Amino acid sequence: MNKRRQWLEGYAFISPWLIGLFVFTLAPMIYSLYISLTEWDFIGEPTFVGLENYANIFRDDLAIQSLWNTLYYTVFSVPLRLALALTVAIILSKPYRGAKGMRILFYLPGIISGVAVAAVWTRMFDPFYGGINDILRWFGITGPGWINDVHWAMPSIILMNLMYIGTPMVVFIAGLKDIPQQLYEVATLDGANAWQRFRSITFPMLSPILFFNLIMQIIQSFQVFTNVYVMTNGGPANATSVIVLYLYQTAFQYLRMGYGSALAWVLFLIILVMTLVVFRTSGWVYFEGKEDSR
Question: Which domains does the chain have, with CATH numbers?
Answer without folding.
Answer: 38-284 (1.10.3720.10)
